[in-house]
Amino acid sequence: MTDYVLHKFLLPLNVEGQFVAELWSLGALGFESHPADGDNVRLDAYFGSLSSLADAFDLTPWHHRGVREMGREQLLERDWLADYRDTSKPFDVGRNFRVDPRDEQASELEQQRSQAPRSEVDAPSSSDRRDLKIPARTAFGTGSHESTRLAVEWLEAVDLKGLAVLDVGTGSGILSFVAETLGARRVVGFDIDAQAVCMAKVNARLNQVEPLLFAGRLSGLVRRREFDLALVNVLPENILGEMPYLADLLEPRGRVISSGNLVSRRDELLALWAKYGFTPVGEKVDAEWAAWLLQLG
Question: Is the overall model pTM greater than 0.90, yes or no?
């Protein structure tokens, strides 16, 4: 069984993207980002035992930018989501979808039992919902988070028929799948995490959809105005450096669904979008999260 080393940091939101890039270059295997106090986040960085963040790594330059290491611990490899998959049940997202986060074996067993009488509690919420199989693997998301739910609600509110859609930071691929199912003419999704893209491609086959998926950044796309709608369900700081590219990839009057935004930062984040020519035309809120429909120009 493989050992891992978890390094914990506290840092300002506005340096998270650059600090993550630095840790990637030093051999990091993955990250978890959690809201902290004020404008800070707690970042958990995972390293293999043989490629752990070297003690000689000089954090001093980052200290000047507000980065603090909060500790580290040794971890044994385990399937962190096994218990969740064993006990989870399908859940509804938006008006049209039902997400199944279980592994394929559990889903097949449920299908075999589907002919037997079932209680109202166990029954699907609606027979006309489209099932999406998004097995809970690693940390790419199944659609249960408020930000993803809000993005799906916006996709259902926009007429996607005939549109070319770009999914920025696709993760599990769920928003790409929803867009294609709702009639998008072309769907392209990408993520900087190659493992996420591999999982998204597996999920695409499970759901019999065919978005074009690749690992990389917006800067890897030819600057050509060929997309009508962009889906941006990522932390704002992870897209700031890409915004100029995004504006160049959208058709005139192109739109963006931006989710993953804290309500408490509404004015600040909308000002950043406005800097690149995007104007809000609608908002949906769930608890502390907001999702906006923005228009270019």
Answer: no
